[in-house]
Amino acid sequence: MILINPSIKLITVLIIALEISFTQSTITNILIVLIGFLYLLINNKITWNALLILLLAIIPTVGIFMSQNMYGTAAMGNILVTRLYAYITLGLTFTKTTTIQELGLSLEQNLKMPTKFVYGFMGGFNLINYVKQDIADIKQAAHFRNINLHFWSPSLYFKAILSAIRYAELLSEGMESHGFSEQAYRTHYKKIALNKSDYSKATFILLILQISIVFI
Amino acid sequence: MFKSLNLKNIILMTLISIICGTIFWIAGFLYNIVTIALTPMGLAPLANDLLIGLWTMAGPLSGYIIKKAGSSLIAEVLGSFVEMFWGGQWGASTVISGIEQGIASELGFTILGYKIYGWVSIISTTITTTIITFIWDWFRNGYSAYSYQMLILLFITRLVSIFVFNGILTKLIANLLEKSTILK
Fold first, then answer.
1. How confident is the model at residue A2 (pLDDT cuts 50, 70, 90)?
2. Which residues in A lie closer than 8 A to residue B8 (C-beta atoms)?
3. What is the pLDDT of residue B27?
4. Are residues A98 and A131 part of one domain?
5. How many independent structural domains does chain A possess?
6. Given an 8 Å threshold on Cβ–Cβ distance, is B145 in contact with A155?
7. What are the residues whose beta carbons fall under 8 Å from the beta carbon of A40, sequence distance 6 or more?
8. pLDDT tens-digit readout, B11-63
9. Does A139 reside within a domain?
10. A121/B16 Cβ within 8 A
11. Do A91 and B91 count as a contact with CB atoms less than 8 A apart?
């Protein structure tokens, strides 16, 4: 298992994604897909869900490829298709090997992000299942009255945001009553290490990227 | 810039971005359907401009509800994270778009000094979002290659899409919230 610090991993992935957005190298894109796949394989993270995401991406790729072949150039079509898969693989290498909690703790301990943001985000993300259930309930309740709520219906958002406001009030009061303070010094039970090797791994990856873009 | 935000605001922003991030993710599927439908007419690039309003919704919604500096930018970026973690079809580039769109919608509130809300702020955030995202696509998605008739069509479509989803929809939701007197 190759470990790399979550914050460094995020920054590296974003730099690579930004760089391939503005360069036109099919081979670099393919290289990113292969290396990303290898990384997932080594870390044993090729799940059915990951394969499904890659499979579903065939739809936009076919669309892009056809429209570029009809109205653009075939070369541009190849670049855009491989670029899309490079983006997805980059996304998977990050999301499949990092949890929101690890990312949050790393942002706090390594990048010194204020605790109110880190714990606010993590608290919010822990409520995902409640938010999902609430939206399902709101739709169901409307359905009983023969009203269909769609993603463009203001009342769906209104009701969802009402429950979000209630959760935000309850959770922030709960956290503060348990002694959470924005200014207080915190000790950490789970420490996220940031070593020199993390920097060298990231530098190495970015160096390969530059070589591939410039020379291949 | 982010000093005025408190814990409650941040949790609320996160929840708004979760709701919107789910919509971003669904919009990805819509994008595929619209692209396929428009391809025979040679208007495939229009799909992006038609749906961009959906992808930039978290920013204005959060900025308008929380009314504090930074709330628009953070909600949009978090929304893009949610989309990436749910397995959106643009993978890691989603977050880059999220940062760019967040800055775009935040700017609409910044130029009014976070003091004026209502239709004025809706219009200003619509204009900044349209212009900045258009410039971004000009460089990133090769818009410079299109003819100027096509560009005008793309720009107007984008403006309308952003105005409908970020403007009118946000205002309607905010009106309901104001009527319920929960915001103060």
1. low
2. 168-169, 172
3. 82
4. no
5. 2
6. no
7. A46, A50, A89, A92, A93, A96, A97
8. 999 999 998 888 888 888 888 888 878 877 767 778 888 889 988 999 999 99
9. yes
10. no
11. yes
Q: A70 and A156: one domain?
A: no
Residue B148 C-alpha, separation from nearest chain A C-alpha, in angstroms: 16
List the domain boundaries for chain B.
7-179
DSSP A78-118: HHHHHHHHHHHHHHHHHHTT--HHHHHHHHHHTS---HHHH
Lowest mean pLDDT among A60-64, B29-33, B78-82, B163-167: A60-64
Assess whether A88 and A123 both reside in one domain. no
Query: Which tokens go with A126?
Result: 């822990």
The pLDDT of residue A101 is above 80: yes
Q: A173 and A95 in one domain? A: no
Do the chains contact at B65 and A63, CB–CB below 8 Å?
no
- The pLDDT assigned to A89 comes to 93
Choose among A140, A175, A135, A176: nearest CA to A159.
A135
Domain range for A128: 115-177
Q: Which residue from B6, B14, B88 is facing A124, i.e. has the nearest CB?
A: B14
**Residue B10: which of A56, A95, A116 has the nearest Cβ?**
A116
The C-alpha of A196 sits at a distance from chain B's nearest C-alpha, in angstroms, of: 25
A53 and A157 in a common domain:
no
Q: Do B169 and A157 touch (CB under 8 A)?
A: yes
A10 and A97 share one domain: yes
Task: Name the burial class of residue A174, with classes exposed (0-12), middle (13-18) and buried (19+) by CB atoms within 10 angstroms of its CB.
Answer: exposed
Same domain for A119 and A98, yes or no, is: no
Same-domain check for residues A84 and A167? no
CA atoms of A202 and B179, how far apart (whole Å): 52
Kindly state whether residue A187 falls inside one of the protein's structural domains: no
Residue A168: is its pLDDT beyond 90? yes
- Tens of pLDDT, residue by residue over B126-180, are 999 999 999 988 877 767 777 788 889 989 999 999 999 999 999 999 889 888 8
User: Does residue A106 have a pLDDT over 70?
Assistant: yes
Residue B75 burial (C-beta neighbours within 10 Å; 0-12, 13-18, 19+): buried
Given the structure tokens 């290659």, which residue do they identify?
B145
Report if residue A108 sits inside a domain: no
How much is the pLDDT for A184? 80
In chain B, what residues touch A135 (CB-CB under 8 Å)?
A: 19
| Residue scoring higher pLDDT (A198 or A76) | A198
Within a domain: A107: no
